[in-house]
């Protein structure tokens, strides 16, 4: 088996779509399920990939990193793409986030929250009105550049959202986007674009110009 740059745990819709997109973008990527035995591809992936991405339901991801897996990172980067807000049981206490809980459990890793605000079925749709879709990235500063690079390789516009505590708002954002997608019949074809406003003068009541 050759070493991959990114190892994705979870071969469901998100894991499979991300593995396909990253591979197509030229990033050597390995994919495995969380059900593998210790001698399996999961073990190989955990040992040999530079970046590991969790594409599992939040309770499964937490269960995984709460054991030896959480301690085996050696300071490598763990990307948490989970969205606990879609789980039936409330597992995240109010005021906290799945990202922070995963980061605390996976203390052998540098945990970065990312990829949770983009839809598996639309990873190729990375533009809104010609501008790249924003992907917030939260976590330790030293781990973020590599995650920025992955997001950019897929065509997204990575945005520094601060420390892992920003997972709270990022996970809420994913739920809000899903709700809006449903309301407008978008079937997940929804993204956000965050950027600096243009400083064009704005007319006020047709009486000349003023800034907004
Ligand atoms: N789908 C999206 O558009 C999207 C976007 C952003 C983030 N996410 C997040 O990504 C994560 C995965 O979502 P998904 O849509 O890919 O879900 P999914 O299609 O249901 O896939 C879930 C994966 O988790 C595995 N799994 C489930 N229960 C398990 C267990 N008890 N033990 C071991 N493995 C188990 C499944 O394995 P089996 O197939 O063997 O059951 C499957 O590989 C979630 O946290 C979700 O919120 C999803």
Strand order of the largest sheet: 2-1-3-4-5
How would you state the average pLDDT, rounded?
Answer: 93
The domain count comes to 1
Q: How much beta, percentage-wise?
A: 15-25%
Within the CATH hierarchy, at the fold level, what is the topology? Rossmann fold
The CATH C-level class name: Alpha Beta
How far is it from the N-terminal to the C-terminal residue, by CA? 58 Å
Low-confidence stretches: none
Shape: globular
Structural class: alpha/beta
Largest sheet: 5 strands, parallel
Q: Provide the gyration radius in Å.
A: 18 Å
Helix content: 25-40%
What is the count of helical runs?
A: 6
CATH architecture annotation name: 3-Layer(aba) Sandwich
- The string of secondary-structure elements, in order, is EHEHEHEHEEEEHEHEE
Task: Please provide the count of β strands.
Answer: 11
Q: What small-molecule ligands were found?
A: NADP nicotinamide-adenine-dinucleotide phosphate
- The CATH homologous superfamily is named NAD(P)-binding Rossmann-like Domain
Explain this structure.
The model has no long low-confidence stretch (mean pLDDT 93). The protein has a single domain (6-210), classed as NAD(P)-binding Rossmann-like Domain (Rossmann fold, 3-Layer(aba) Sandwich). The longest helix has 17 residues, at 167-183. The protein is of the alpha/beta class and 212 residues long. Helix 3 packs parallel to helix 4. 30% of the residues lie in helices and 17% in strands. A five-stranded parallel β-sheet has the order 2-1-3-4-5, sandwiched between helices. The protein has a two-stranded antiparallel ribbon with strand order 6-7. The structure holds NADP nicotinamide-adenine-dinucleotide phosphate. Residues 10-15, 33-35, 55-58, 60, 81-83, 86, 116, 119-120 line the site of NADP nicotinamide-adenine-dinucleotide phosphate.
């Amino acid at each position: 088996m050759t070493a991959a740059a990114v190892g994705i745990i979870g071969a469901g819709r998100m894991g499979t779509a991300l593995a396909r997109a990253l591979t197509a973008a030229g990033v050597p990527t390995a994919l495995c399920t969380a059900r593998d035995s210790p001698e399996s591809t999961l073990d190989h992936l955990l040992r040999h990939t530079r970046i590991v991405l969790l594409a599992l339901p939040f309770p499964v991801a937490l269960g995984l990193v709460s054991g030896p897996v959480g301690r085996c990172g050696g300071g490598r980067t763990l990307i948490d793409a989970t969205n606990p807000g879609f789980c039936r049981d409330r597992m995240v206490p109010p005021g906290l986030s799945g990202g922070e809980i995963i980061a605390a459990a996976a203390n052998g890793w540098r945990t970065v929250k990312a990829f949770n605000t983009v839809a598996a079925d639309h990873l190729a749709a990375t533009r809104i009105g010609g501008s790249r879709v924003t992907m917030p990235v939260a976590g330790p500063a030293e781990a973020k550049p590599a995650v920025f690079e992955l997001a950019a390789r897929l065509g997204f516009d990575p945005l520094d959202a601060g420390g892992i505590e920003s997972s709270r708002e990022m996970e809420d954002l994913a739920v809000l986007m899903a709700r809006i997608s449903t309301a407008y019949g978008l079937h997940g074809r929804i993204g956000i674009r965050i950027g600096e406003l243009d400083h064009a003068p704005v007319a006020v009541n047709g009486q000349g110009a003023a800034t907004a």
